[in-house]
Amino acid sequence: MIRVRHSLRLGTALLLLLMAVACSQNGDPVGRTTNARIETSTSPELIKEATAFGGLVLPPGAEVLQARVDSALDTRYQLALRIDPDGLTKLLADSHFDKPLIKAYPPFEEVIAGPSLATSPLVLTAQDRYQNAEGMSVYRTVIVDERDPSTWIVHLSMNTT
After folding, report:
1. Torsion over CA of 87, 90, 96 and 102, rounded to 10 degrees?
2. Mind listing the pLDDT tens digit for each residue in 5-39?
3. How far is 52 from 71, CA to CA, in rounded Å?
4. Global confidence as pTM
């Protein structure tokens, strides 16, 4: 009887140990950094990737302040642009952005370039869904920081989820 209990305890302990080893992951505990990519720059290659991913057509005169990609399980591209009001109208029309801009209220998302949105006299936003050339659904968010009547900072975020 004592040997049976001892064998049962030993077997249970061995089973628990095997389950713990089988269920643990080597290295990255959440599996998010495998093939992860984070890059921030103004390189033409990154800007081209971001615009292609989000189906964006940048108008002449738009100044790219910063571009960023963050990808692991999901992918997100961000662009910050300095643009005039006519350029924004052209950007939205040529990029087939079909949702209207509405007033946004704090708290605001953190931006990758330009001044904090909290100091802006007027912030507008809109979001739509776009199917890119690779067949992925991309959620596109535009945030417009109207600093003065002639120059606006436009923050674009495009992500798969």
Report:
1. 60
2. 555 565 555 444 444 444 444 444 444 456 799 99
3. 15
4. 0.78
